[in-house]
Every structure is written in C-alpha cells, then in structure tokens.
Design a protein that fits this description.
heterotetramer, A alpha/beta, C mainly alpha, D mainly alpha, C: mainly alpha, 2 domains, 7 helices, D: mainly alpha, Arp2/3 complex 21 kDa subunit ARPC3, 70% helix, globular, binds adenosine-5'-triphosphate, binds biotin, binds magnesium ion
Amino acid sequence: MGVQEATIRSAESSNATEPALRLTAVSHARDSVGVLQDIGLSSDARRIGVVGRNGSGKSSLARLVVGLERPDAGTIRVFGGDVAADRAFALQNVGMIFQNPDQQIIFPTVAEEIRFGMENLGWDKPRIERKTADILNEFGAGDWAAKPVYTLSHGQKHLVCLLSVLAMEPRLVVLDEPYVGLDIPTASAMRRLLDRLSQHIMLISHDPADFDGFDELIWLDEGMLKMHGRREVVLPAFTEAMHRMAQPC
Amino acid sequence: MGVQEATIRSAESSNATEPALRLTAVSHARDSVGVLQDIGLSSDARRIGVVGRNGSGKSSLARLVVGLERPDAGTIRVFGGDVAADRAFALQNVGMIFQNPDQQIIFPTVAEEIRFGMENLGWDKPRIERKTADILNEFGAGDWAAKPVYTLSHGQKHLVCLLSVLAMEPRLVVLDEPYVGLDIPTASAMRRLLDRLSQHIMLISHDPADFDGFDELIWLDEGMLKMHGRREVVLPAFTEAMHRMAQPC
Amino acid sequence: MLSLALPRVSWAHRVPATAKLAGLLVLSLVLFPVKDPIILGGALAAVVMLTGSLGTSAMRQTMRFVVPLLFMVGLLLLFHIVFGQLRDGIAIVLRLLTMVLLANFVTMTTALSEMMALVEKLFAPFAKIGVNVRAVSVAMGLAIRFTPVLLTKSGLLFDAWRARSQKPARWRLVVPIGLAALDDAEQISDALRARGGVPSTRRSG
Amino acid sequence: MERNIAYVALFAALIVVLGLLPKFNLLSGVPITAQSLGVMLCGVVLGAKRGALAVLLFLLLVAIGLPFLAGGRGGIGVFATPSVGFLIGWPVAAFVTGLIMQRSAPASILWRALVASVIGGIVVLYAFGIPGMALMLEKDLITAAGFAMPFVPGDIIKAVAAGAIAQGLYGMRPRALISVKG
Ligand SMILES: Nc1ncnc2c1ncn2[C@@H]1O[C@H](COP(=O)(O)OP(=O)(O)OP(=O)(O)O)[C@@H](O)[C@H]1O
Ligand SMILES: Nc1ncnc2c1ncn2[C@@H]1O[C@H](COP(=O)(O)OP(=O)(O)OP(=O)(O)O)[C@@H](O)[C@H]1O
Ligand SMILES: O=C(O)CCCC[C@@H]1SC[C@@H]2NC(=O)N[C@@H]21
Ligand SMILES: [Mg+2]
Ligand SMILES: [Mg+2]
C-alpha cells in the first residue's frame, strides 16, 4: 500500500525532505469574512489533532489542507506539494472525511461510492475492482458492495466514507469530527480502525479524549494559531482554558 | 413562566392526575419498517433521558411524543392529552429541539424564528414582542433579534432553536442530541441553561455524562424497551453493556 | 432507482440497445408519410403483438402508459367525425399509438445500465469538441441521488413547522427548502472535489 | 466545475420532484403539469447556460427510461406524443429565461424573474409546443394554438410563483441566485 503504486505522477512531485504539513503565513476569508489569520506551522507528526471553539476555523483549515480552497495569502505545502494548485498531487496524497456522511456520499451503492475516487486517479478497471473488494474485506464489509447506501446505518455510512477515501491510498487523511452522533460501540470501532491506519491523520474534535495516542495538537482561536506542539503540552492547556470558560461567571 | 399563562385552552385539556408521559403498547413503523415495538411506560419525572444505539428508535420515539406522528398501534398521552390528534394541546404542552438546527430553523432572522411559535399560539402582538425581547435578554442574546440566522455559528443556532421553543412555554421539552458538535464552553452553557429550566425535559444522548442530575432513563434496543427506571439503575447497566460491546472480539 | 425497464429478462432484452433504437428510428421515418389506415392498423397490431410477447406484466405496464393517451385519442376521433374527416383521424391516431408503443417497447426491454452505457457511447464523439462525458454521467447519478434528498429535506422542514404550528405551511416553506437544497448541493460539490471531482479538461494520462 | 454539476443535477432533480404533483390531462394529450415551473426556476436561479443544461439532463433521464415525467411516464415513447414540442422547447425556454434574468436592468428581482419566466417559459416555450402539437395531431397551427389556451392561466400562475420564489431566495440570501451575480 502507498503512493509508490500510484500510476500517474504529478509534475510537482512530493519531496522526501519536506514535512507532512507546512503552512506559511496563511490567511483566508470566506464571503469576505476573515476565518484564518497568519497561520504558520510545520509538522511531520503521524497523528495531529485540531481543537478550538465553534467557529474558530478548524473546518476551514481542513479545507485548505486538502486543497478544496486556495488560501488568500501565504502558502500551504502537504508533503511538499501545493494541494490547491496541483490537484492530481492532492488526490494522491490527501483525503478528507466530512462531518456528515449524508452530505458526502455521492452514489447510490457502496461499490460505486468506493470506486469513484480511484476512477479519478486514472487506475485501470481490474485494479479498481480488486482494490474495492480488498478494502471491503479488510474492514469486514465483504458483502456490502451492491448494497444501496440508504439502507446502511449512520455508523456504517461513516465507514463507507472512510473506505472510499482509504481506497485512494492517500498519505494524509483529514477527519472532521468523525465520532459525532455515533453510539459508544460504533465510535470505539471507528477509533480502533483509525488507530490501525498507517497513514498520517489529522483529526478535528471537541472531545479531548479523542486525542489519546496523538503526537501533536493545533489549537485555533478566532482564526489564529493559539498553540501548536506536543499533545502533552497543548491538550492540558486547551482543556484548562475551556473549562475555565465554561465556569458560570 | 408556565402553562397557566396560556390563553387558549384546548378541548381535551390536561388532567392533573395524569402523568407527564404515558405510552401503552405503542408500536410504530416508518416506510413499513418497524421502528418501535410494543412500548409501554409511564413517567412523571422532571428529567427523563433516552439512550440506545444508533437506529434503536430514539428519534422515532421523540417524534411520537411531540405528536409529529401517530403511532400505528397503542396510545400516547402527554399530560393526559392525545398529542397526535389534538395539535392545539400539543403545541401548548410539548416542544422539540431537533438534532440539526439547520433542519429546524425556518426563518431568515432570529426574531422571526422566535416569534413564529407564539404567533401560532394566538398570542397578541405586544405580548409576543415582549416575550421575544425578554427571552433573548435572559439568555444573553439581547442584540440578536435582527441577525440573519445564517451568520450564526452552530452553537448559536442551537440556542436559537431552544429559545424559539422555550418562548412557547411548553411543559415538556424534548431535545434530540442537543450537545452534538458544540464546543466545551458552549455545551456547558447549554447544560446550565437546561438545568435552570422548570419544564419537564426529555433528553436523547449517546454520552452517559449528559444525564447527571436526571431522574429516569429509557433504554431502547432495536425498537424495544430494554429498560426504564431510575437513572442510578439504568445508566450503569446501559454503559456497562455498551462498553462490553465496544470490546474488540 | 425505479425505471421503466421490465425487471424480468425477455428475448428482446438480448437484442442490443443500438439495434432497437436504430429500428425505432427507421420505422418512424417509414411510417411518417403513410396515410392508409390498413397499413397503419397492421403496424399497430404488430407492435401490440410485440409487446404481448413480453408477457402480461409488460402489457399491464404499457396500459398504464397508454390509458391517458386513449382519452385524448377518443376525443380526437370525435373531433374528426364532427368535421367529416374520419379517415384522417383514424390514420393520425393509429400512427401515434404505433410510435408510442414501439418506443415504449424499446424502453421496457433495455436495462438502465445498458442505456447509460449507450449514452456514454453516444456522447463519446462529442468529447473531441469539448463535451465532458464524465460530467454527464456524474450529473446523471447526482440528479437521481438528489431526488429523494429533496423530498427528505422538505419533510424535515415540514416537521419543524408542524412542531410549532397548527396551520398548514403551504408556500411559506418553499424558500427555506430551496436554500437547504442549495446548501446540500454546495456540500456535495465539495465532497466531489475532495475525491477528484470531474476534470474540467480531458484527462491525458 | 463540480459546483456547476451539483447545481445542474439539483435542478434536474427539482423538475423530477415537481412531477410528483398531480397533473391534469387535456384533450390535446398534453397535460397541465407543475414541471414547467421547474423549467422556469432553472433559468431564473441558475441562469441561461446552467439552466438549459439542467433541463437537458432531466430530458436525458426521461429518455433513457426513468419515469420522471408527471404521472410516472418516461422512455423514448414520450417524444412520440403531442408533448414533444414542449419537451424540446423546455431547455430553450430555460435558456431564454436565464438570459433575460442575467441581462435585465437591476429592477426588483420579482419583476425581472416574472418577466423572464413569461417570455422564456411561456412565449418561447409555446413557439415550440404549438408546432409540436400541430405536427403530431396533424392540425393547423391555429387549431394547435387553441389547444394551448388551457395552459395559459396555469402558466401565468407559475411565472408569478417563479418570481416570488426568486425574490424570496434573494431576500434571504442574495448569493443564492447565481443568475443575478453572473
Ligand atoms: N460558507 C461560509 N461563508 C461565510 N462564512 C463562513 C462559511 N463557513 C464558515 N464560515 C465562518 O468561518 C468561521 C470559521 O468556520 P469553521 O467552520 O471553520 O469553524 P469550525 O472551527 O470548524 O467550527 P465548528 O466547531 O462549529 O465546526 C466561522 O465564523 C463561520 O461563521
Ligand atoms: N424516514 C424513515 N424511513 C424509514 N426508516 C426510517 C426512517 N427514519 C428512521 N428509520 C429507521 O428507523 C430506525 C430507528 O431510527 P431512529 O432515527 O429513531 O434511530 P435513533 O435511535 O434516533 O438513532 P441515532 O442514534 O442514529 O439518531 C432505524 O432503523 C432507521 O433506519
Ligand atoms: O408530457 C408532459 O408530461 C409535459 C409536456 C409539456 C407540458 C407543457 S409545458 C407548458 C404547458 N403548460 C402546462 O402546464 N403544460 C404544457
Ligand atoms: Mg467545523
Ligand atoms: Mg436519532
């Protein structure tokens, strides 16, 4: 598994000496409202968490990292590539799971949904078929291929979203609040699944417990980088600040 | 605050000897798929929690309790009234906060959204204006009245949903996973707000910690009533079962 | 998704879709100038037998399609009788029914997947002049996906209304539903783009 | 690109959904249907190009055999009925409606959308629909025009609805009308 397999190589190829994530003086506005200001950070951690209050810019940061938008100012490099400009590079290297599976599942059946991304990578048909079957089997969903998506439960839909991104073999997977609305057993199954992944992971969550075993944390506050560093340092500071704010005044 | 203020009294008026909630042999199907089977329970608790796995029927139960649907079999009485048949009674007595504020907010500005329910109760204009201003002030949102809803954050939208239901002064407020996606300070503000309410509350959540201070718990399992009783009894049994399921096998 | 294709495989399902469509085209060109009720009647009888050869469920499905037209046919004949042009009226009606039934026959006996493959083939030549064939097939899938979503979204907002009002919502919910649907389209387009989306220029590799 | 595809698909789906409303059969065999409101909205909200593409996408789905015309009809057969002129005219109607919406002076959205819908969704559309009925029913154009008269009141109501909806969308969120921003 890995990028080595990918058949199309992009012009601006990844650079071995480049960190997974590098943002330099990134500022960004949506609908002419500033959502991120002057973010600079560099990280090579395999597990990066993103925390911050509602509206602090976490989802906006995720969109920039996967190249859905180009920052108004500054540069973003993921494994050395310019994800907004070089979409072929982005497709091979980063994938994103949005918060609500209903808003991201595109096709009526599980197999179609999983195949879509690989088709866009230009893989040939037998390889796509093989990978689809493999990944479903690997995650204990071998008989799902022909299932209509609407018959799946919320947690199962989440899994389909994840598999359809993993099938593309990205090096970095960005997850925007993946545990929200899942019951305890389903959430913990998802957690174990993510633990197993060899990929780099960037996870957005409001629950400090979701970052067990993480290396680094990014703390956003009103669009600015409040703190970035090792989890053991950032997480206590963040939770302390949140609980202080949560006190009735 | 309270029902005493309500000006229109419904034909089938509430009965002082009737419990807040009484379900007798309730079964229900959606799209001819059974979602609830033979639920019977009676409760007068001021704080009732509802727990269960994804798809166990929690939201379906909530829809029946606020009278959005009529059960296929059995009867539901809320404060003695038939909420599905007697909509005037239901509007005065039960309110519901849906899980996703985007699926609940109808009007473009905060004030319009809050006024809507009161208009439907037939209150006169000065009273509606007064109540709108009061409730916004009470919850620290005095300057929101003219704000377009789409500029609010997720947590702020949640608050608007809650206020527009509270403004109607129902006796029972049903909340479907209200803390989902909220940051820690916002969630705890919402929690304190709910604590303060004199109304009966029925709360759906996946997080056992959300039921601190609750009186009773309803545990649904695949559409059936697995357990109903005091929180101290049901909650440990439920969390134990969930964590057992969550073990990797 | 519900389609008009018969679920059961008949002899006609094995005929390639291109052949069936070509036959339809040829027959419509041949029949167009014909005015003789005998020939047209023969053609209609042949098409009815063709449909009949597919079995009773095909006949039932065809009737559902044709009954609304029969209403019009009756009135049309009456109209011609009043103006003393019975022969013309009969010819028009026979030709119309023949063509509708024949086209219906092709649709019923061609699986949706085959039709979609055909669409891609038909569009392929246009790729050279810039038509994005991939965009067409993705858009077809999305449109089918959005149909139940629109209904569900509307249902949710109607519920939100009913939870706070006794009066029927009527038109007041149209705009909120429209905005919710537009938001949904926005989110889906992000999801598409995050997984490669639809290349706006043709892929070279 | 993806955004355009999503919008085009959404509005094709909107026409499908409007087909679930009941239709009324008329003597001509062409029903009174709410789907032509969908055609007007395609132009009014999406503008000329995307609006026409949305209608074309809808017709493509109908042609390959999905039962998406009012009353659950579909398949190539529908192009052999007296409706054929209207069906072919739909994408053109959406295009013209959208064009007027984009080009019209900055009057009120309600009036712009109303006028655009009347010209595109009625005048232009009938210019296709009437010859279509004349051809299929072998009548002269005058008689066929007579067949179109029962549509007029309904179509005017639809144009007013399209105007009101456009106004409503614009009022609640100006950027919802892609046609206006260009
Ligand atoms: N499409 C949009 N147009 C305009 N402003 C937007 C848009 N999306 C988000 N915003 C604004 O950008 C800011 C950051 O939003 P973002 O979604 O990134 O926050 P977040 O940290 O993900 O919050 P949450 O925890 O609630 O998901 C917020 O103030 C929000 O109101
Ligand atoms: N509109 C619908 N049509 C058909 N089935 C439905 C519909 N809505 C829900 N269901 C089914 O009813 C069952 C119960 O759904 P419900 O939404 O009540 O579960 P829930 O306990 O609220 O789950 P969650 O924790 O995921 O919100 C599920 O199996 C679901 O698939
Ligand atoms: O066959 C169909 O389902 C519909 C064909 C078009 C009907 C046209 S659109 C303009 C006019 N107004 C109506 O209500 N119906 C016709
Ligand atoms: Mg977010
Ligand atoms: Mg639920």
